Amino acid sequence: MEKANKALLLKRGIGLRPSAYACRLFEIIAGQLYISENRGVGSNFLLFFFSCVVSAACQGADHLTADELPLGQDTTVFFGGTILTLDKDFSEFDSMAIKGNRILALGNDAGVSKIAGNEAMRIDLAGQTVMPGFIDAHAHPMTGVATSVFTDVGITRFRSVEMALSFMSRHPSVSEDWYLFIGLDLATQDFQESKLTRFHLDAVSSAVPVVVWHAGGHRMTVNSLMLERLNITSATEDPADSEYGRFEDGSPDGNLAGLTALVSALSQIDPYQKFDRFSGAIGLADEWVRHGITTIGLASVGSPDDWRMIERLSASGLFPIRTRSYLLWHALEQWKLSGIAPGQGDARARIVGWKIAADGSNQAFTGLQRDPYLGKQSRGMAYMTQEALTAAISEGTLMGGQMAMHGNGDAGIDNIIAGVEAARIGGLDPIRPRIEHCSMIQDDQISKLKESDISCSFLIAHVSNWGSAFRDRVFGREKAQLLDRAGSFERAGVPFSLHSDYPVSRLKPLGMMQVAVTREVTADPNFTLAPRERASIEAALKAVTSVPAKQLLSDDELGSLEVGKLADFVILAEDPRTVSPNELGAIEVLGTWIDGRQQYPRAPAETESN
Ligand SMILES: [Zn+2]
């Protein structure tokens, strides 16, 4: 492919041009200024002046735009490999032509070349495999990049909470005024005490706010000073969707769980709020295209400003990944005031629906269960009452949005299914309802999903990263078998996709496929979690392409290679169906194309001509 890329550039008569890199750098700086300006730090005049300089410099740069390409060269034929279409028949061809940003033809080389014409560029795949671009059905890039202001104290660094606390005392985090830590995991890290409280963190510092954001994102522990800043006292009532941990006398113990509690804590953390998420997202996109990701489901856009940033990223030409957004239901009033609603946007960035959460996360013991957690009285937390959940599903549907519904525990999932059924009984037709994570699921629920036409998306890193913790500390051996039941879903005919939930996991699509197919557990290599729940390779391939495309209401344009669909695809060194399952994650991504343009490896000409 290296060779083919060079051939492609040579054919276009385009070499490496320093001016291209300079333009990209200028554009990133301009993007940063724009963000600063929005926060009231910069000035409109400075932004305008700088933008003019950038745009003049870049227009004068030494490159060809798409309009200037010699006639016919916007058509490219890929031949001599395996074109794995992922269409409904799993069709396979050896040649594909694209024209502009669409797929023009599929078939054998002679037939495709005839349609493409003599002027088309030709790229010899030399036996490599082309398949649809990978879709990560659910991720949080904007929140995720800003978590870099927190220092990791998770299981990969510290075996026990005591070791993590000792590190925190000795190594304050990135900011002098804030001690911010992330990734602490009471499900996997040993802890000799019954609970972590503000007093442990007062010992880290009582002079500055200390915040520990737990793995999975659904719980925080803060020190006494941070509690003061949040005005949480013995007299403060819990918000409807959240819980403030308490000592026996009712005074707050420093633990915060639930959406309102976390959102209000985050709103106070200056380094997090001031993080340059625009540039951070661009850096993340560079990493994602290297792993073949072409589209992501943005699983919760939190505010009108967040949506406007996504629009700007998309328009900047520096963030090539397509996005399909879910607006956080929690901020409904803001959405109504701003007029931002599902259906808005374009093929690059579009709002498809609403995000609601029925419960918390299992590893933080806040997923809502039918039975108590192992060795505990608690069954977890309902983030929404059944009544509120049913009302949201009905209202969201009436407002034209699809519902993406977070449910981790089996009782949380019960509530979601009941809410969808209630909306249907009320005469509504929810649009492709999907359950996010859908982690602990019983046989009777799988049948109901089938009957109710509800699909699921698995955070498959739950298996690899927490599989043994779920067995030993969270659920016990028997219930742990009910985690991410890809095999049962496949047999029952219930569609499922895979997602990273970035920053919860950093698994890449081929790595996610490997976990789904093997059920391997990183911490216990001799243990396979519920082998009968292994997915077939075909189901795993669909779970990162055609199924998420349908879940994101984009199956008419994405998710399979078919004539007329958008030219988003990856070129892989090997056919995923031919390698051993535990080598899937190691397959090399040789090229990533989005909208008919090569985004990885990025050729200067491709960067500029947007
Ligand atoms: Zn999520």
Report on the architecture of this protein.
- It is a single chain.
- The chain is of the alpha/beta class and 610 residues long.
- It folds into 3 domains: 133 residues, Urease, subunit C, domain 1; 133 residues, Diaminopimelate Epimerase, Chain A, domain 1 (Roll), CATH 3.10.310; 164 residues, Alpha-Beta Barrel (TIM Barrel).
- 37% of the residues lie in helices and 20% in strands.
- The protein has 23 helices and 22 strands.
- The strands form 3 sheets. Strands 1, 2, 3, 4, 5, 20, 21 and 22 form an 8-stranded mixed sheet that branches. Strands 6-13-14-15-16-17-18-19 form an 8-stranded parallel sheet. It has a 6-stranded mixed sheet with strand order 7-8-9-10-12-11.
- Strand 16, helix 15 and strand 17 form a beta-alpha-beta unit.
- The relative contact order is 0.13.
- The N terminus and C terminus are likely disordered.
- It binds zinc ion.
Let me know the largest β-sheet: 8 strands, mixed
**Amount of beta strand:** 15-25%
Distance between the termini: 23 Å
Please state the CA-atom Rg, rounded to the nearest Å: 25 Å
Number of domains: 3
Find the CATH superfamily of the largest domain: Metal-dependent hydrolases
Summarize model confidence as the mean pLDDT: 88
* Residue share in helix: 25-40%
Category from helices, strands and their pairing:
alpha/beta
> Runs with pLDDT <50, length 5+?
1-72, 605-610
- Outline, from the CA principal axes? globular
Number of strands: 22
Which molecules are bound besides the chains?
Answer: zinc ion
Just name the CATH architecture of the largest domain: Alpha-Beta Barrel
In the CATH hierarchy, the third-tier topology of the largest domain is known as TIM Barrel
